[in-house]
Amino acid sequence: MPQFDKRTLLLGGFAVLLSACTTPGENDGGGVVQTGNTGSKYYVARGTPFTPANKKGQKLVRVALLAPFNSQNSAIRAEADTLKAAAELAINENGDGSTILMPIDSGDTPETAEASAKRAISSGADFIMGPLFSSGVSAVAPYARANNAMMFSFSTDTQDAGRGLFVVSFLPEDEAKRIVTYAGKHGVKKLVLLVPQSKYGEKIELAATKAAARNGIKILGTARYDSTQNASVNGENAGKIAARYIAGSNRDEVAILIPERGNMLRYLAKVLSVNGASMSKTRYLGTGLWNDDNVLQDSRLLGGWFVSPDNSGRSAFENRLQAKKGKSATRLAGMGYDTAALIARLVKQGDKSAITARSLENADGFDGVDGRFRFDDGVIERGMSVMEVSPNGAKTLEGSQKKF
User: Fold this and answer.
1) Can you identify the CATH homologous superfamily of domain 6-167+314-382?
2) SS3 for 152?
3) Are strands 150-153 and 99-105 parallel, antiparallel or unpaired?
4) Which stretches of 208-327 are assigned E, i.e. beta strand?
5) What H or E segment, with its residue span, contains residue 100?
6) 65: how many CB neighbours lie within 10 A of its CB?
7) Domains of the chain: which residue ranges?
8) For the chain, how big is the Rg over CA atoms in Å?
9) CA–CA separation, 371 vs 140, rounded Å?
10) Is the pTM of this model over 0.85?
11) Per-residue DSSP letters for 21-70?
């Protein structure tokens, strides 16, 4: 599939590249299509739509992928390239040739993301995937709405969701709701929250509190720590506070929610254990951050419950991405694949009108590489399994929801 030359984008030769690759056709309205709210300050006049040489004269649907392909951070750059590879694979496997991908560098700032949105829209984008950062999403959203370009965000920030913007990431609120609800149905009556002082922690705390109320669980208290600082200081103090909250409670009725990963998670488990809150005294609950081999090998977490996406289709996707694109799949790559596949499946024969808010907010949802998902007012809800840390890794306690 022909691709944009990223160097051309950076050098400002984008319009030149487009004019060299396009030709006016019946589907392109003579090369210029004016749609959207022309009275809005976010309106962008559309130029000649990007059309690969081998697609001239065809009715096409154009999907812009906004990602930091030229980031100074090599890890972010690699993530963006893998996302692009996954989206290409999805379109090749699910489309009929009428859906084309337009990768455009979004940079690392809201300003560069805004500029990339303008380039995408002026080049005929019908749909926008990305950008990756929440500040960029907020900058791009007004342009997408004003120009009738449906947008799919990979950020976990849901404040811009709805009105044509769909959040496709894994949301901490979903994970907290799932694990607390499961715990309530399996004997937990009291809950302690041990959370980081961050937006992520705030979302977990709010969602867990709401889920606890719905399931008759009493919140004994919340201990917070700064995960950006030294674990031996912040983590130890918070762990000691959390341990005090469970004192005197029945082990089978009390749990501690620890939405953390890696070294910090293992350190918190250590602090809890030496301060009277080991797994013999309480139940540890976790989010998808626990789904890591190093974490699962920590004996202090044995018996802990956590959530995980349905991985039944994941390995096949990973194998295909590696074999066909030479890329190792990341969580973001799975989101990119599912989004691009959904668009390509629904817009057969270049008919973008097949995708509406109503068709996307199908109550039954869709099957993806990370399990079943659906949208409600632009916000994704994912089916997730509940797992238990066992001596042999993670074992499934309850499979993901097949129906919502």
Assistant:
1) Response regulator (3.40.50.2300)
2) strand
3) unpaired
4) 218-225, 254-257, 283-286, 305-309
5) strand 99-105
6) 29
7) 6-167+314-382, 172-309+384-398
8) 23
9) 28
10) no
11) H----GGGGGG----S-TTSTT-----SPP--GGGTTS--EEEEEEE-TT
pLDDT digit of tens for each residue in the chain (404 aa)? Answer: 334 333 233 323 323 233 333 333 333 433 444 567 778 899 999 899 999 999 999 999 999 999 999 999 999 999 999 999 999 999 999 999 999 999 999 999 999 999 999 999 999 999 999 999 999 999 999 999 999 999 999 998 898 999 999 999 999 999 999 999 999 999 999 999 999 999 999 999 999 999 999 999 999 999 999 987 766 677 899 999 999 999 999 999 999 999 999 889 999 999 999 999 999 999 999 999 998 888 899 999 999 999 998 877 888 999 999 999 999 999 999 999 999 999 999 998 888 888 999 999 988 899 999 999 999 999 999 999 999 999 988 999 998 866 66
Q: How far apart are CA 135 and CA 138, in angstroms?
A: 5
CATH 3.40.50.2300 fits 172-309+384-398, yes or no: yes
Amino acid (1-letter code) at residue 109: T
Are 6-167+314-382 and 172-309+384-398 equal in CATH topology? Answer: yes
Q: If you search the block for the tokens 């090749």, which residue do you land on?
A: 92
